[in-house]
Specification:
The complex is a heterodimer of chains A (about 290) and B (about 475). With about 290 residues, chain A is mostly helical. Chain A contains 8 helices and 4 strands; from the N terminus they run αααββββααααα. In chain A, helix 3 packs antiparallel against helix 5 and helix 5 packs antiparallel against helix 6. Chain A is rod-shaped. Among the domains of chain B are: about 100 residues, no CATH class; about 150 residues, no CATH class. The two termini of chain B are about 20 Å apart. The chains are: A mainly alpha (about 290), B alpha+beta (about 475).
Chain lengths: ~290, ~475
């Protein structure tokens, strides 16, 4: 083959530019630590990365949801615990008041205590969390219980998506814990005790015990339900955090460059480029006229 | 006496011929790196004096060392390579528009919309959370608008580039026709017209980078230039190409017909910059753009349908979250946060009915569940899958075009190398030629000296 001047220059410049393009690519990989910087670097991996990051975003949103609703659920649980304690106190008062040896004035004192208990219970049932009134159902901006104990909220569930197949309920039902919707109207039971004590009616006081018991267990049941919700939140969180880890790992597996490999490739190409420059120089030095 | 004069004449012819050779060598050396220069060889032959022998040497002209076959291969390879490069440039810019590496792209915006629905379900009653839904929806619409506008602008730019390219092709055609005329005149005057021929080859090569070009020599020795299967230069006549848009917005190229009117040659457009523009604009960009529009339309429509079922904190229902047209046409460019809810966080429909406001979250959960629902591409893919497909398809197109650029570039440099090997200047060769002609010239001068001496000797003898 006849070799001409232009061929020499062309081949030197082609080879150098190809090599430096590969070197630039390797440098980018080593610098960013990413194997897929553009969709065209690996189209299949790029599509996979887009889906993985979507799935990762969903996991992150679910974990944020869990964190955000857990506070109110924990608050609801402790408030129901308080409510249940108040009911226990009411029961003690009822047992005391049922004692036949007690006089009218003592019962009147006990009645005052019951009234106080009811006030406290209304306060507990009206407690507010981060997302409004805890026991109001979906009417979170309206005080659900009047001072007399009349319920104006509803039994709507607050549902969120935490990764389960169906949306999960995360609020405690005030309707089921405190009102007739759950079986007994807790406030009416306290009212009955108050009336019996005020009327100095020992028999009626003793008779109110059963109702108070049932009321208390109704509150305890509601508390247990919130406990279950908290367990469910924990379980979902660990599922989502495992997914989070898995997604991060997949994203790194699919998209990240192996640092050692990236670095050694870069070094190799750097050397190759230097050598190629040296060789090119000696090829161009060959020019016949220099010797002429 | 006749012998000595003859010797002088032979020496004179030798000096002329060798200096012609030196001259040609000089031309070759000085044009060693001139693009399109074809090496010349001085043609020397024995001076024929009828039946007499010993007629010395004469230079009859020079020969351009070319090979039509290789030249045609070079036109073809230049066209294919230039089309691949043009397409790759366009795809590179589309790819960078869609690249989501920094997490600021459409994919992240889409994910954020669904994340904002999730947050809304957790806190349906919180104004900030509601405002975040609007912000996320706005960011998604903005990103979609930006992409839609960029794609539309790219389409306009490419049309302009196509127009410029057509103008250049027409100009080259004029120039080639003019050169053809000059070459014909020079040839008639007995000139070799080597420089003009170099120029013409160079112009045709330049043209082949603009549009797929083919040449052949017709019966009367004219070089006919064809682009996209149509003769554009035939001897000293050149035809004109023109550009138009079809009803669907794609490019259309026409060639003027000699009898008036014009014929469409779009379907024969396979190479050159123009071929690359057509492929990138009317196929690649069209494809990506329709996929994007479909995705944006499907997401906006699905979200709207669910959102309209729910109720805002103000008790209103039946509202859209996005304003989007009835079909996917230009959906990316035109999608906006709906005027129904714009700047009204309270109107975000988190609850499923008016009785469960403001704390109800059923509809917010349903909205966030759209993420897992197959709403895109005729209800066969989720939005994230469809977005992944979009990214994958632009990635495959670009990596394909990168491979094309490499392959066609390698073919082109091989053909160029073949061409150079045939027609290029080799300085080694020229150095030898230079020495050869120099020595011959020196020897011829010596001949004159010898003839002169002999003549002197003779004259001295006779004169005594």
């Amino acid at each position: 083959m006849r070799v001409t001047e232009q061929m020499r220059y062309d081949s030197v410049s082609n080879n150098l530019s190809q090599l430096s393009a590969r070197q630039a690519k390797a440098a980018q990989e080593a610098q960013t630590g990413l194997r897929v910087n553009l969709p065209s670097d690996d189209p299949i991996a790029a599509a996979q990365l887009a889906r993985l990051s979507a799935s990762q975003s969903q996991v992150t949103a679910r974990r944020a949801t869990i964190t955000s609703v857990r506070g109110d659920a924990e608050l609801a649980e402790s408030q129901l615990q308080q409510a249940s304690d108040l009911m226990a106190t009411a029961k003690e008062i009822a047992m005391q008041g049922g004692n036949g040896a007690l006089g009218a004035s003592e019962r009147a004192t006990l009645a005052l205590q019951v009234k106080d208990l009811k006030d406290q219970l209304v306060g507990v049932a009206n407690s507010r969390g981060a997302s409004g009134y805890l026991f109001a159902g979906s009417a979170t901006e309206t005080k659900p219980f009047s001072d007399a104990g009349a319920f104006s909220g509803n039994d709507d569930a607050h549902v969120v998506d935490i990764g389960n197949s169906t949306p999960s309920t995360v609020n405690a039902s005030g309707a089921k814990a405190f009102t007739a919707a759950g079986g007994r109207d807790v406030f009416a039971d306290l009212d009955a005790l108050y009336t019996a004590l005020t009327n100095n009616d020992a028999a009626a006081v003793a008779a109110s015990l059963d109702g108070l018991d049932t009321s208390r267990s109704q509150i305890t049941n509601a508390q247990a339900a919130v406990g279950l919700t908290l367990n469910k939140l924990d379980a979902s969180d660990s599922v989502q955090s495992a997914l989070d880890l898995q997604n991060s790992k997949s994203i790194s597996d699919v998209g990240a460059a192996d640092p050692a490999k990236a670095y050694s490739t870069l070094m190799q190409l750097n050397n190759a480029l230097q050598q190629s420059v040296a060789v090119s120089k000696s090829i161009l030095d060959l020019a016949a006229f220099k010797q002429f | 006496m006749a012998g000595l004069t003859q010797l002088l004449n032979v020496a004179r012819d030798a000096l002329t011929a060798q200096s012609y050779g030196l001259n040609v060598t000089g031309q070759n050396i000085s044009n060693a790196s001139t693009p399109g220069y074809v090496r010349r060889v001085a043609v020397l032959e024995t001076n024929n004096l009828g039946t007499q022998s010993g007629g010395g040497v004469r230079a009859t002209g020079l020969q351009r060392i070319t090979n039509d076959y290789i030249e045609r291969r070079e036109y073809q390879a230049t066209g294919t390579s230039s089309a691949a490069t043009q397409r790759d440039q366009t795809l590179a810019s589309i790819e960078s528009m869609l690249n989501d590496g920094g997490g600021t792209g459409l994919g992240s915006a889409l994910n954020d919309v669904f994340a904002s629905f999730s947050a809304l379900a957790a806190n349906p009653n919180d104004t900030t959370t509601r405002a975040n839904v609007l912000a996320a929806a706005g960011a998604f619409a903005d990103r979609a608008n930006e992409l839609g506008n960029n794609f539309a602008q790219t389409q306009i730019d490419l049309k302009q580039q196509a127009q410029d390219t057509v103008d250049q092709v027409n100009q080259r055609a004029q120039e080639i026709a003019k050169l053809d005329m000059q070459i014909a005149q020079a040839t008639m005057a007995g000139d070799d017209a080597a420089d003009l021929k170099d120029q013409r080859t160079q112009k045709i090569l330049n043209m082949s980078g603009l549009i797929n070009t083919h040449t052949f020599t017709d019966g009367s020795g004219n070089t006919v230039v064809q682009v996209a299967g149509t003769t554009i230069v035939d001897g000293k006549n050149a035809r004109t190409l023109s550009l138009d848009l079809k009803a669907d917005g794609s490019l259309q190229v026409f060639a003027d017909q000699s009898g008036g009117g014009r014929s469409e040659i779009t379907q024969f457009l396979t190479g050159g910059k123009l071929g690359g523009i057509k492929e990138a604009r009317d196929k690649d960009l069209f494809d990506v753009s329709s996929k994007l529009n479909a995705l944006v339309f499907d997401v906006a429509t699905a979200v709207n349908t669910q959102h309209a079922l729910g109720t805002g904190a103000d008790g209103g229902t039946g509202r859209n979250l996005f304003d989007v047209g009835p079909t996917s046409t230009n959906a990316a460019r035109d999608v906006r946060v709906s005027v129904d809810v714009f700047n009204r966080p309270d109107r975000i429909a988190a609850a499923s009915n008016v009785f469960s406001t403001p704390g109800g979250s059923d509809n917010a959960v349903a909205l966030s569940k759209i993420f897992d629902t197959q709403i895109a591409l005729g209800n066969t893919k989720t939005a994230a899958q469809a977005y992944g497909d979009l990214i994958g398809s632009i990635g495959s197109a670009r990596s394909g075009s990168q491979r094309d650029v490499e392959t066609q570039g390698a073919i082109l440099s091989q053909v160029k190398s073949m061409h150079q090997s045939e027609s290029g200047v080799s300085l080694e060769e020229e150095m030898v030629n230079l020495t050869k002609y120099q020595n011959a010239y020196q020897a011829a001068s010596k001949m004159i000296g010898v003839a002169d001496q002999l003549m002197q000797t003779l004259l001295n003898t006779v004169g005594r």
